[in-house]
Design a protein that fits this description.
7 helices; elongated; six-stranded antiparallel beta sheet; alpha+beta; two-stranded antiparallel sheet
Length: 193
């Protein structure tokens, strides 16, 4: 779905041909994954991808949406303060307000440490395409996008974190952060077979 509110947006760059894959069929793709950053998160994205994953704070989703707390407002340390949390959001528990601010600080720090445009994985760099069975073996965004791809099709796919690597992110086998938690991702895909 390429609509603005969709958690997964696909743009066809080059048409393919042949049949669409079916559930359970083996597919092979070339891919490059890059970090997009969360600067374009809407209030709904903040509520769905980030706030809903914070233990004990997901009850604030309605207030975040009502007050249009998008990523720009959330990351503005001059506006999104402890006073804002207690006054505007009605958080009476100061510990919850501090917890919310600390989680925001971790999110914005990961933006600085892992900037938009960073390539985190690529079949070309690995020297090997990614093969998986449709319906299992890939993150939700890849699975959804490939379902509508014919052989030879190239597409750009942008997904929210809840369709990517979620609140855990992705680490290398050595433990290095490849994709920070809550990351919005872009994949350049080509269906090979």
């Amino acid at each position: 779905d390429s609509s603005e509110a969709s958690p997964v947006k696909k743009l066809v760059l080059e048409e393919g041909n042949g049949e669409l894959p079916t559930d359970g069929s083996s597919v092979e793709i070339e891919y490059t994954g890059t970090l997009v950053g969360e600067k374009d998160w809407s209030a709904q994205d903040v509520a769905d991808c980030w706030l809903s994953q914070l233990q004990g704070l997901d009850h604030l989703k309605a207030e975040f949406i009502q007050n249009n707390i998008d990523f720009a407002l959330l990351s503005d340390t001059n506006v999104f303060t402890e006073e804002f949390c207690t006054t505007t959001l009605g958080i009476s528990n100061k510990i919850q307000a501090k917890k919310l601010l600390m989680a925001r600080n971790r999110l914005t720090k990961s933006q600085d440490e892992h900037p938009a445009g960073t390539v985190f994985d690529s079949s070309a760099e690995r020297g090997k395409n990614f093969t998986f069975n449709l319906g299992k073996g890939a993150i939700k965004a890849i699975d959804l996008a490939v379902r509508s791809m014919r052989v030879g099709e190239r597409a750009s796919v942008v997904c929210r974190s809840d369709y990517g690597y979620g609140s855990e992110g992705l680490r290398s086998s050595k433990g290095d952060v490849m994709v920070p938690p809550f990351s919005t991702l872009n994949f350049e895909l080509k269906r090979v077979c």
